[in-house]
R-spondin-1 (Latimeria menadoensis), 141 residues
Amino acid sequence: MQFGLFAVVVVFLSLMDYTGSNKVMRGRRQRRISTEVTPVCAKGCDLCSEYNGCLKCSPKLFILLERNDIRQIGICLPSCPMGYFGVRNPEMNKCIKCKIENCEACLSRNFCTKCKEGLYLHKGRCYSSCPEGFAAANGTI
């Protein structure tokens, strides 16, 4: 009997401490102070983050955002890779993915310069066969 009463009191006090600590924590955010040193940026990167790579590239370089699960990682490149085209502006030069179906390389969002293998390029678009009234030039696609 005495042990049972003691156990009830311990459980009761534990619950009071738990609910009391929740009230104290509620509405206040714990402030985390980082003791880490600012990350060293890769060559050509002017501003970077430990988790997102480069955030701002040197003036003549392009920033390419690559997906890594739900994160995007920025890298600086002298030119954009296949499947992307470069857009220059005063704030930042960016690599933007081609939006044309079956396009490997493009000049702009809506103008393809190289189609995937086996497709025909005509006026910036990719076709499975040459459009009506046209033939492949010199055996090319």
User: Anything to note?
Assistant: The helical segments are 2-25. The chain has a mean pLDDT of 78. The longest strand covers residues 62-68. Strands lie at 45-49, 53-57, 62-68, 71-77, 84-87, 93-97, 103-108, 111-115, 120-122, 125-127.
